[in-house]
């Protein structure tokens, strides 16, 4: 076995797919008795949608969600505020999925599990990681079933309370604010329409009721109950009736609920030898800005192809690239939480900063740009989409990137003669409408090598440097 992934939340499932689709022998274990059934992270960011397209799960994700609904704040019957979290925009040639897409987390996990199973990997439930040791050649893990597993790499995707992180002794500094708590519940409710979400604020309390995409449920937010003995349905009924002043809204059933505590933490390291942390195991966020799950999925997508290749420089690049991303996501979520605490009028509004499209690895170990006069897009940036012509056929760059290979784009120059086999696919870009040139801003004679995870690794004018770079980074012999 090559890799043991501990935890089958969104991060662990994404990593399982990224590995299994490359033919890596992987097991994904989870200590839970049953699959997770709550809405939790229901906002999928544009960059995550691009990742999902590459992992072949975009269609079911789009089929099971929506763009989110209009929100209205009420005082009694009167609407005192109305707006959208973000205003939907049309796709552009460089950004085919520009909007946040709402899907409940349990549905996203179900879709990822189905894709993983189609690659021959079933999640092993009721199987906890209990302990592990590592040496130069691998990791020996002990599972709650009594089994001992020997793998080349172990990945902790085991959430905020990560056993893997604790066993490694990696500190998890940050803040838990017991005073900032919110009850989140998924409920079946009669008496209200699904055409918009409702908030009835009362002081720092009240209630919110928002339709949950792709289901007949609503997500209810309220202050957590103080009487633990009161059934949760009764508590929500009472709270909504009091906040709305309406007695025609009936809470019929509560399918999931949790009390969220403000918890903002970042692990000091994401790696110890052959053991890696991804997702909440490495960083926990306030839900403001919808960064938690999305950042974890990006961690997995960043690590998958590197574990499959296994070269030192690729594995070394994981922690600095993703630490920077996690810091940025935590800062953003914290700023938005402060806006909510202050009661800013635009606290519900989300701008492009939450979408993940501008995140880059410019100062990362894998980014090299040897042009004297780089344009606006440089090594380390996300490689944008564009409609282009290849061998007389109209294609999208994202179609050329789709799959486990690297992609070499030749702008106004011929493709190098080096034989990379199928590991690197090279295309001379013919750009009839100028979209690729607009997105990449690269002069004639430029070669851009796109990593398997869709970021620009090398930008150069020398074919030899492409061969050198690729051999160095992957640890393969120079073509
Ligand atoms: C109320 C709420 C709203 C949120 N809203 C958003 C949002 O809108 N957008 C967003 O991006 N994020 C949001 N989040 C955060 C998001 O839910 C998490 O970031 C995400 O679930 C983390 O995924 P993960 O795979 O890293 O970990 P988890 O989903 O926590 O999964 C970890 C898994 O590991 C398993 N496990 C734990 N220990 C072991 C062990 N020893 N052995 C085996 N298995 C183990 C657990 O059973 C679990 O299944 C929200 C969170 C909450 C609570």
UniProtKB/TrEMBL annotation:
Keyword field: FAD, Flavoprotein
Top-level taxon: Bacteria
Pfam families recorded: FAD_binding_3 (PF01494), Rng_hyd_C (PF21274)
Record domain FAD-binding: where: 2-332
MF (Gene Ontology): FAD binding; oxidoreductase activity, acting on paired donors, with incorporation or reduction of molecular oxygen, NAD(P)H as one donor, and incorporation of one atom of oxygen
SUPFAM superfamilies reported for this sequence: FAD/NAD(P)-binding domain, Thioredoxin-like
Gene3D superfamilies registered for this protein in UniProt: 3.30.70.2450, 3.40.30.120, FAD/NAD(P)-binding domain (3.50.50.60)
Required cofactor(s): FAD
The keyword Nucleotide-binding is annotated on this UniProt entry: no
Name by which UniProt lists this protein: 3-(3-hydroxyphenyl)propionate hydroxylase
Top-level taxonomy: Bacteria, Bacillati, Actinomycetota, Actinomycetes, Micromonosporales
